[in-house]
Amino acid sequence: MSHAGQVTTTAAVPPVAKETLWGGRYRATTGGLVLLVTLVAFEAMSVGTAMPTMVADLGGQALYSWPFTAFLAASVVGTVLSGRVADTRGPRLPLLAGPVFFAAGLLVAGFAPTMELLLAGRVLQGLGGGIQIVALYALVGLVYPESTRPAVFGVISAAWVLPALVGPVVAGLLTEHASWRWVFLGLAPFVALGIGLLVPMLRRLPESEPTPLVRRWLIAAAVAAAAGLSALTWAAQHPSLVTALLAAGGLLVLAPALRTLLPAGTLRAARGLPSVVLARGLLTGSFFAVEAYLPLTLTAVHGTSPALAGLPLTVGALGWSGAAAWQGRHPDIARHRLMRAGFLIIAAGLAGTTVGAFAAAPFWLVLPFWIAAGAGMGLAMPSVSVRLLELSPASDRGFNSAAMQIWDMLLSAACIGFGGVLLLTVASAAAPAPAVITLNVLMAGLALLGAVLAARTAGPPPGD
C-alpha cells in the first residue's frame, strides 16, 4: 500500500526473537531510550518542588505559573516539528536535536540570573522534550520487532515511576541543602550519556530520502494549539470566573487547530487509529484529573501531613509499574482487550477513591483504589502506544505520535481545569468534598466511555 510522502526505509536491525530488550544489540538503545525518558520525567515531577524558591530568588513571583506554561507551549510545537521531520527525513535528526535542546534548556535555566532567562530555559526544555519523545516513538517502530514492542512501551511507562517516587524528594533536598539550580544542572550530564547510548543505533539507521510535505499547515496549527493549551493550563492553575472565560477562549482557538493536528475522525471515535488517539486522551484526562486533587482532599478532609497526602501517588506509581511490566511479558494478548480491562480497572479505582472525600472514612482506604487505578494505567497506556504503531504506516508514525501527545496534553489540561472550576463553584480548597465527589464520578464515567470505545481500536494494520 503506497502513501504520499512515505519515507523509504528498511528495518535498521533484523528482528531477533530470542534477544531481550536488555541484551545483545538492543541493550544500548533501550538504555538510552529509558534514560532520556527518565530525565524528562524527573524534570516534570521535580521542578514544581523547587519552583517557589527559584521564583523568589529571581524576583519572579508575579510570573510563578509561566515556567510551567512556557514548557507546555514549547512541548506542543516540539512534538509537531519532530513528527514532521521524522515522517519526511527519518528520526535521526530529531533524536539528536531533541536531547540537545533539552540539555541546553537545563543549562540556561540552571545558570539563569533573571526570571526571563529561566523562562527561556523552560522553553528550550519543553521544545527538546517534545521533539525527543515523538522521535523515540518513531525509533521504536523502526528498530524493535513487533513482538517486543509491548515490553518496550512497558519499560517507557515504568521509566516515569522512579521520578514519581523520588523526584520531588530529591528536588526538595537539593533546594534546601544546596541550590535549586542543581535541579536543572544535575541532569545535564546524563542527557549527554543518553545521546551517547543511542548513537551506535542511529549510525546504523538507513538513510531516508527527503519527501514532499503533505500537511502544509501543521506549524501554524501547532502555534495555535500551544496558545490554546497555554490558556487552558493557566486557567487550571488560577481557577476563577475570569480564567474560565480564558479557558473557553483557548478551546475556541484549539478547535480549528485540532482538525489539522489530529487524525481525521478522532473526535467522532472513528474505528481504528482515530479511536486509539482518542483513548489516550481519555486515559490521561480521567486519571490525572483525579490525581491532581487527591492530596488536597486528604489534607483538607482528613488533616494528613503533606507526606501522607502524597502516599497514594507513590503506591499508584508502583501499581502502574507492575502492570506495565506484566503486559510486556504477554505480547500475545490483544491490545484492545488490555485497553478495555485497563479502562474498567481505572473506572473502579477512580470511583472508589471518592471514599477519601468523606471524613468518617479513614484516609488509607483510598490506597487500594489508587493502586488499582495505577495498575489500570499500566495495562492501558503501553497498549495504546503499541496499537498506534501497528496502525500507523511508516510515513505517518511521526504525525500520529505527535497527535497522541497533543491530545494527551489537551485532555489532561481540560479535565484538571474542569476540576478547578468545580472547586471554585461548588466547593473550596478548605472544603473540597462536593467538587471531588463530582469530579471523581464524572472521570470514572469518562473511563467507562473509554472501555466502551476500546473495541473500536481493534482491526488489521494498514495494508492488510
Structure description:
This protein is mainly alpha-helical. 73% of the residues lie in helices and 0% in strands. It has 17 helices and no strands. Helix 4 packs across helix 16 (397-426). The radius of gyration is 21 Å and the shape is globular. The protein starts with 26 loop residues before the first helix and ends in an 11-residue tail after the last helix. The model is unreliable at 1-18 (pLDDT under 50).
Question: Which key phrases capture this entry?
Answer:
globular, 464 residues, mainly alpha, single chain
Mean pLDDT: 85
What does the radius of gyration come to? 21 Å
Unreliable parts:
1-18
In terms of quaternary structure, the protein is single chain
Number of helices: 17
Identify the overall geometry. globular
Strand content: under 5%
- Helix-and-strand structural type: mainly alpha
Helix content: over 70%
β-strand number: 0
**SSE pattern:** HHHHHHHHHHHHHHHHH
User: CA-to-CA gap between the ends?
Assistant: 9 Å
The biggest sheet amounts to:
none
In short:
This protein has helices spanning 27-57, 66-89, 92-110, 115-143, 149-158, 161-177, 182-185, 188-204, 218-237, 241-261, 273-302, 306-309, 311-328, 335-352, 366-390, 397-426, 433-453.
